[in-house]
Amino acid sequence: MKHLFKYNRTRFLSTCLLLLSCFWWVIHSQAHDEVHHAIHELDHQIEAQPHQLDLYFLRGQMHQKNNHFNAAFSDFQTCQLLAKKQHKILPKPTLSLAKLCFQQELYYLALLFADKYISQTSPSNHTYAYITKARCYAQLNKEIKAKALWEKVLATTPTPKPEYYLTTASIILKANNKDATGAIQCLQNGIKKLGDIITLQTKIIEIAQQHQQYEVAITMLNYIIKNQKRQEKWLLQKANLLLAANQPQKAKQTYQQTLTAIQQLPKQHQVTPLVQQIKTQSQQALHHLKMP
Questions:
Q1: How does DSSP classify residue 42?
Q2: pTM of the model
Q3: Distance (Å, whole) CA 116 – CA 255
Q4: In this structure, are residues 279 and 262 in contact, taking their beta carbons and an 8 Å threshold?
Q5: What burial class does residue 203 get, using C-beta atoms within 10 Å of its C-beta: 0-12 exposed, 13-18 middle, 19+ buried?
């Protein structure tokens, strides 16, 4: 009966994966068809209105979605040339060209277009140009320039995305000879700005642990544990850090707290593979700590 249950569960999971794959394929195909039809409609509109700038820009965006680099590049450039003939300044295609060139790993060309866009627009519109430039410099192994641009993005964007802080912290580590303190400070600034974002908090723990700043990592873990309903995985991580920081007695107490937290979970949660793994690791660690 037990083997039959395992077999049926395996079949069920396999069926679910197959259905998800089919669903993704249908959605992807439908999206592709919609973009193809949009391009077809724009072709007719451009034939009827060959001097309409926005039509070329829209078609360029559709080609970009379809990963048709040459067609997208051509439409964005045509849009720029028509704007020049019509004595108009149209920055949007310039930024699109910068992003497109970055996607195609044409980093120096992307930098040129990003700079041109910056020269055409006010500072409040520079965020995505700075990001494109920063990403280019990172790919070109020019971390100091990338760091300066990412810091400018953080300083000038009213509500930066969490990934901006994560990327900046990563660049700081590369640019400043593994400046863990600077990277952690960047992430802490992100938390002050955006609130308790778990990805920023866990990145602080990761960086602090890698650079043996155990107190910083443990302080952040204590904060997370205090604000989480499910504490077992965080307690295990804290116990492991205490052990690495050569605080075996505190580690022992925290492993025991981990087991207590698991015992307090509903039965159905206690038997999940992840919780069982945490339980086993805690028990093994306690066993080793009790050994003479």
A1: H
A2: 0.78
A3: 57
A4: yes
A5: buried
